[in-house]
Amino acid sequence: MIEFKHVNKYYGANHVLRDVTMTVSRGEVVVVCGPSGSGKSTLIKCVNALEPYQDGHILVDGIDVGNKARSATHLRQRVGMVFQNFELYPHLSVIENICLAQRVVLKRHAEEARERARRLLDRVGLKDKEAAYPMNLSGGQQQRIAIARALALDPEIMLFDEPTSALDPEMINEVLDVMTALAADGMTMMVVTHEMGFARRVASRVVFMDMGEVVEDCSTEAFFSHPQSRSDRARLFLDKILSH
Amino acid sequence: MNYQWNWGLLLRAPYAGWLLTGLGWTVALSIAGWLIALPLGTTIGIARTSSSRWVLRLSGFYVSVFRNIPLLLQMFVWFFVVPELLPAKLGLWFKRDLPAPEFWTAVLALGFYTSGRLAELFRAGLQAVPRGQRMAADATGMNRAQALRYVVMPQALRIILPPLTSEFMSIVKNSSLALTIGVLELTAQSRQIENFTFHGFEAFGAATAFYVLVALVLNLVMVCLQRTLALPVAV
Fold this sequence. Notes:
- The structure holds 2 protein chains of 2 kinds.
- Chain A is of the alpha/beta class.
- Chain A is built from 9 helices and 10 strands.
- In chain A, the strands form 2 sheets. Chain A has a 6-stranded mixed sheet with strand order 6-7-8-3-9-10, with helices on both faces. In chain A, strands 2-1-4-5 form a 4-stranded antiparallel sheet, covered by helices on one side.
- In chain A, α3 packs across α4 (110-123), α3 (94-104) packs parallel to α5 and α5 (139-151) packs parallel to α6 (169-184).
- Chain B has helices spanning 15-47, 53-68, 71-85, 88-97, 101-128, 131-139, 144-174, 186-197, 200-229.
- Chain B is flat and about 70 Å long.
- In chain B, α1 (15-47) packs across α5 (101-128).
- Chain B has 9 helices and no strands.
- Chain B has a domain at 26-184: MetI-like (MetI-like fold, Orthogonal Bundle).
- At the A-B interface, α2 and α3 of A face α6 and α7 of B.
């Protein structure tokens, strides 16, 4: 469903993605982890063309992301994204946040959009918050609404860029629960996260990146259960984040 | 100081009428100028955040021209120079057939000058909206215009509303410069009263009071607008 073929990206002289080649199949949940600055976020932002890349190809359902003939709008309707800092629109109420892109991008009718939004709010457990404004919600609630906003466009792929990194510890699980349910429903997901518990439970594969390179790309089982057969860099990283 | 105060004079004909028509011209200049400045300033301000080099350069040039040349000089240029540069017929129409040419010239000068200032205000406001907001709009498939219209601009407007109020007040005060090209607005009328009666204190006092009144009304309107647009505060 997503194919990376020898993708290279540079910020000036800085080589931030190095020859990334991998595949994400339909229904797979791939967790991307690695030390900060390793290029994880940049990698998933290339999938929906938020970040340009200079070399190689990314194919979403066989269609080249870098191919300008097809508009990014078309691509982005099919690829939902959730950000570290939620990025809900502060001037719009919760339901307006979820309806906006449905209305202006998909041209859905107001009633249809609202109904879809209400069903999604129910799904993320925030049915009673439709009239609230983002500022009045907790981080965990905001992130669940951000997930609902992305789902409102009926995407086939969901990208998560450190969705729980900005949350207080007691709110992490409410967001992970929503993501787990989404994975169980068969959504294709790429998740940048440090939540190794989530990776272990939900991911079908784990990709470990360091310095712009994919160092490990293996099944979750292999990644966590056979550390001795992993590279030094991956082992070092795992030791650091699993030690406490 | 031996001065005979005579405030009653201001209420007498023709002076009361002069002051009121002066106030009328001042308000008309300010509103007409603002109607030019706001759409132009918004457009140029958006252009100032463009990713195209040429758009950036052109809009930057626009801003430096209209913001850096003294308004008084701009009035003179619009009044004395521009009609000469136009094709002969149009120039003649401008100077002779256009009703109240000095008024329209002053409106153009005020409008363009203020648009340069507003452009910088809008640029700053647009840039003050966190980058992630545009990214979120992009990620849901909105195009640039939609992201601007529905996500970035509503937030930028709320940020710049207080300085926008100051600019609105500035245009009222700047409109007094129109007297130099012959518009009989509030300041000009009070000067005329002074010339006729030698009661400058009362005449200028009245003009001052009217300016303050206009400013207070404007301020009130903008505060109401700010209240209506205010986002709910975190509880």
